[in-house]
Every structure is written in structure tokens, then in C-alpha cells.
Design a protein that fits this description.
The chain is 37% helix and 14% strand. The chain is built from 13 helices and 14 strands. The chain folds into two domains: 132 residues, Aspartate Aminotransferase, domain 1; 215 residues, Type I PLP-dependent aspartate aminotransferase-like (Major domain) (Aspartate Aminotransferase, domain 2). It is an alpha/beta fold. The strands form four sheets. It has a seven-stranded mixed beta sheet with strand order 2-8-7-6-5-3-4, with helices on both faces. Strands 10-14-13 form a three-stranded antiparallel beta sheet, with no helix packed on it. Helix 6 links the parallel strand 3 and strand 4. The model has no long low-confidence stretch (mean pLDDT 96).
């Protein structure tokens, strides 16, 4: 194993310093909530600070498994955020001579964990020119002999694009035919604009679903995520890996997560309404933008516009002006191993005024960095 810091974390707003940022458009989540904001009935003073069930609080797992069919609470494993679930699945299923196929671009951990484990990693590449559409025929060509794990993320990070239910089922058929596993990162599933995909783990014993409280629920600080599988033996293997990392989760974090999920429908309704208002602002800004183009997202809280190839922009100058002059942060393309002519905007996290200001600052920075001929 060889671990290196991910560039997205080294350059994250919390590392750069929130006090230096006026308009934070990098966050790939909804606004962060406090306990007062959530208005949950919980007394932390009464909680014994003990170990918890290694698989996770029973009541929490009961609530989580309501999203799945063919899966009971015993086959839910609560983890320290989705990132631990990603690590557990890769570390459990893969040996150094195995191959993994990962959707690219993607959330960095889905790429960096197998890379750190030094397995043979290949990519199924999405691209702007094809509107980030998932091509099943091309995807199947990328599966090599010895491929053990396939990793995809939908709604997609960083583009916010989606696949159809029929495409997901076709992917699972391909996975089963090739006798490998599917890791489905469903972090943004609750924030799909239209009909949600079925949870992948509900469709096949060869699929593992991952989700968390961080992005869709606005409580990343409690570090609660989970994975789900129909395969009881596989879940026990995942649990064995978790016990080597943390044994169990924080009892306080699990209590908060349980209280939030009891009231999740009301919370998510408010979150979706807030997201829609902000997305409308983003859409209006992107309409006929003279310098930018995008594949319009259909899920999540992020988008991945790019500078039009026909427009000559000094890219380095653009980011310097945006960050240092205007105090506005976006996620540059290199965070996702893409060209910096593309950048991720997280539109749901900032307050409306900050979102509007940040978008205007992007426009002003592009104008100043435009190379006039």
C-alpha cells in the first residue's frame, strides 16, 4: 500500500482557510446544519460514551434499510462516512493482482483508494463531447480478464449527470455476466431531480451500495455513512475490515444520525426546495453565457461547466484573479484529473447572495483573463 494526499483535499477550502474565502462555490453538499437547525429531540448528556454495535446502531440500520429491498438491517454496515465504505469495499475485495474498472472522472476516493492499494486500475472515461453519456457497449469493452470490481457514481460527481434505470440494470447484468462486483456510490441519490434510481444493492447480490449523511443531509461533521449488500458473507468480510480500522462508530454520531433519519422526509423536502431555488439561479446565469458551456445536471448539487474551446482564456490568470482578487473558490478540473478549462461549481451550499456574487466573480475573472486578439 502507498498512500498520498489527494489534491482535492490538499487544496480544499478548509485547508486554504474559510476566513480567506468570500464566495465558496467548491462545496459538493447542501448547507451545513447545526443541531439547533435540525430541531431534533436528543439529549447528548444522557448518552453513555461506550462502544457501539460494530455494524452500527440497530435503530439506525433499521432506518437505513428502508431504502432497500431484499436487504435486512443485518446486511447494512454503518461506517465513518462514505469514504470509509469505499475503502472497505476496495480493501476487502481486491488483491494486488486484481483489476478494477472505475468511472472517470469521479469522486477522488473512488479513484485514489484502488490506486493506493496498488491494484491494476483502469478507467471507463466519460467526456464532455459525448455529454457524459454512459455507453454500455463501450463500457463492456473496458472490462478485462481478472476485473474484480467496477466502481460507478450516480448522480455523477463532478458533473451531476444521471443514467436511466434501464442503464443501471444493464450495467448490473454485465457485472453478473463477468462475475465481478459493482460498487455503486449513491451519495447524491436523495437529490435526484426527477425519479430516483433503485438502490443498486437491491437489484443484485453482486452490487454494493454506498451512501452517507454528508452531502444530501448537510451534516458531514458527524461522519456517518453506510454500505449495503444482499450477501451476508460479504457483509461479514466488510465488517472484519472495518474492525481493523475503527472497530465501531462514534456513539454520539450514530445517535444524531438516527434522530435525523427519523425525520428525513421533512428535512429532504426543505433541502430540495432550497436546491431548486439555487439551481434556477445557476441555470439563468449559464443561459447564453458567452464564455462557458455545460452538460446540464439532472441530480446532485454540483455541475462541471467548461470554458468554450473557441474562447482564448489564460487559465492560470483566471484562477488567480478568481481566488486572490475576488475571494471566490471553485473546484478546478485537475481535482478530477481533467483540464482546468473545466471546473466544478457547488451551487447548493452557499447562501443565495454568495452564490450570485460568486457566479458574477467567475464572469468578471473570465473577462479579465480573456486573451484579446
Amino acid at each position: 500500500m502507498k498512500f498520498e494526499r489527494m489534491i482535492i483535499e490538499k487544496e480544499s477550502p478548509e485547508e486554504y482557510g474559510y476566513d480567506r474565502i468570500k464566495n465558496n462555490l467548491t462545496e459538493s453538499s447542501v448547507p451545513d446544519y447545526s443541531l439547533n437547525d435540525l430541531d431534533i429531540k436528543i439529549s447528548l448528556n444522557d448518552i453513555p460514551l461506550s462502544y457501539t454495535n460494530h455494524s452500527g446502531n440497530q435503530f439506525l440500520r433499521d432506518l437505513v434499510c428502508q431504502n432497500y429491498s431484499h436487504i435486512n438491517s443485518e446486511n447494512i454496515l454503518v461506517t465513518t462516512g462514505a469514504v470509509m465504505s469505499i475503502f472497505i469495499v476496495n480493501a476487502t475485495l481486491l488483491n494486488s493482482n486484481d483489476k478494477t474498472l472505475v468511472l472517470h472522472p469521479n469522486y477522488s476516493s473512488n479513484i485514489e483508494v484502488p490506486r493506493s492499494l496498488q491494484v491494476n486500475e483502469t478507467f471507463y472515461q466519460l467526456d464532455f463531447e459525448h455529454e457524459y453519456i454512459f455507453d454500455l457497449e463501450e463500457f463492456e469493452k473496458q472490462i478485462l480478464p481478472g476485473t474484480k470490481l467496477i466502481s460507478i457514481t450516480y448522480p455523477h460527481n463532478p458533473t451531476g449527470t444521471m443514467i436511466s434505470e434501464s442503464t443501471l440494470k444493464a450495467i448490473i447484468e454485465i457485472v453478473e455476466k463477468n462475475d465481478c462486483y459493482l460498487l455503486m456510490d449513491e451519495t447524491y441519490r436523495e437529490l435526484t431531480f426527477n425519479k430516483k434510481l433503485p438502490t443498486a444493492a437491491s437489484l443484485s447480490p453482486k452490487a454494493v451500495s454506498i451512501e452517507s449523511m454528508s452531502k444530501s443531509y448537510g451534516i458531514p461533521g458527524i461522519r456517518i455513512g453506510w454500505l449495503a449488500t444482499q450477501d451476508s458473507t460479504l457483509k461479514e468480510r466488510f465488517l472484519a475490515t472495518k474492525e481493523q480500522i475503527s472497530i465501531c462508530n462514534s456513539i454520539i454520531d450514530e445517535e444524531i444520525a438516527t434522530a435525523v433519519l427519523k425525520n428525513k422526509n421533512y428535512l429532504l423536502e426543505n433541502i430540495r426546495r432550497n436546491n431548486q431555488e439555487k439551481f434556477a439561479i445557476l441555470q439563468h446565469w449559464m443561459e447564453d453565457h458567452s464564455f462557458l458551456e455545460w452538460v446540464e445536471p439532472t441530480g446532485g448539487v454540483i455541475c462541471f461547466p467548461r470554458i468554450k474551446p473557441s474562447i482564448d482564456i489564460n487559465i492560470k490568470k483566471f484562477y488567480t484573479i478568481l481566488t486572490e482578487k475576488f475571494g471566490t473558490f471553485v473546484g478546478p478540473g485537475h481535482w478530477f484529473e481533467q483540464s482546468d478549462s473545466s471546473f466544478r461549481i457547488g451551487y447548493a451550499w452557499p447562501k443565495i447572495e454568495s452564490l450570485k456574487n460568486g457566479l458574477e466573480c467567475i464572469t468578471e475573472s473570465l473577462l479579465e483573463a480573456h486573451v484579446k486578439k
